[in-house]
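Dear colleagues,

As part of the handover before I leave the project, I'm documenting each prediction I ran so the next person doesn't have to rerun anything. This entry is a single chain, and its sequence is reproduced below.
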Amino acid sequence: MSELSSVQQVLLTALEGSIERLEIDLAGLTYDELDLSADRAASPGTWTIREIIHHLVDDGDLWCMRIKQAIATPGTTVRLDGFPGNEAWSASLDFEDRDVGPALKLVSAHCSYLIELLTRFYNAWDRSVVVVDVASRSEKPKSVLQIVQMLVEHMDEHMDQIEAIKEFNRI
């Protein structure tokens, strides 16, 4: 049986809650409503709900592997290169026109997988990887705890963004 700290429990509960919140936020939305955004005229580059969902998949892909590396091979250097930026990435992978069904399943699977992994390895949250960001020329250690905190905060930001889009469009 794991002995999660209170911080770990809060973060894992928040991660689990993110999936529930996403499901609630998207319930009943039509295909066309997924293509709504906040005021694109006032803020060019503002993402649609559909684009946000695909972005969340990429976050899960990227950081799930980094967490596993930190647990299994602490101190490993990981390079974040070859990323052209969110807009170019989104365009290259056609975020604006892809089905969100598989993406939602993958976001949910990432969260469920991480909850199980992080519960099992509750004593490894202080392990880290060294993240080399080629674009910003920085090299920083990131612990499992820091990565989980970042993921939870990022999910919350995007859930807030989806809710703001719904409010802006009165849906």
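The chain has a mean pLDDT of 92. The radius of gyration is 17 Å.

All the best with the project,
I.
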